[in-house]
Amino acid sequence: MYGTVARLRVKPGMEAQFLDYGNQIDADPPPGHVQGYVFQMDRNSREFFLVVMFESREAYRANAESPEQHQQFLKMMEMLEAEPEWNDGEVVQSF
């Protein structure tokens, strides 16, 4: 599996809208999507970590480079203070 861990900072008052948007995306996941998690940090309720896993690097890249994903990204950026900090990599262990 392959995926990303991203740190996101949501604009003040946009937390619920951000989570609702995630639910919309989850209703129609892209090809190769395996699992996703969103963590809301205790220390700052506007800070989130997004974990997304795909069945392969190729499926991840195909999604990341698709026009549909770009449109979703632009919509998400309306709710964020800055661009996410992306950390892509291979899943090497699960427990």
What does this structure look like?
The chain is of the alpha+beta class. It has one domain (2-88): Alpha-Beta Plaits (2-Layer Sandwich). 33% of the residues lie in helices and 32% in strands. It has helices at 15-26, 57-64, 67-77, and strands at 2-9, 33-40, 47-54, 85-90. It has a 4-stranded antiparallel sheet with strand order 2-3-1-4. Strand 2 and strand 3 form a beta hairpin. The longest helix is centred in the first third of the chain and has 12 residues, at 15-26. The two termini are 14 Å apart. The mean pLDDT is 95.
Shape: globular
Give the proportion of residues in helices. Answer: 25-40%
In terms of per-residue confidence, which ranges show pLDDT below 50 for 5 or more consecutive residues?
Answer: none
Q: Give the structural class.
A: alpha+beta
Taking all Cα atoms into account, the compactness measure Rg is 13 Å
Let me know the number of strands.
4
Indicate the CATH class: Alpha Beta
Please tally the helical runs, counting DSSP H or I stretches of 4 or more residues.
Answer: 3
The CATH architecture term is: 2-Layer Sandwich
Distance between the termini: 14 Å
- CATH topology name: Alpha-Beta Plaits
Percentage of residues in strands: 25-35%
Describe the strand arrangement of the main beta sheet, using strand numbers: 2-3-1-4
Summarize the biggest pleated sheet: 4 strands, antiparallel
**Overall number of domains:** 1
Helix and strand element order: EHEEHHE
- Mean pLDDT over all positions: 95
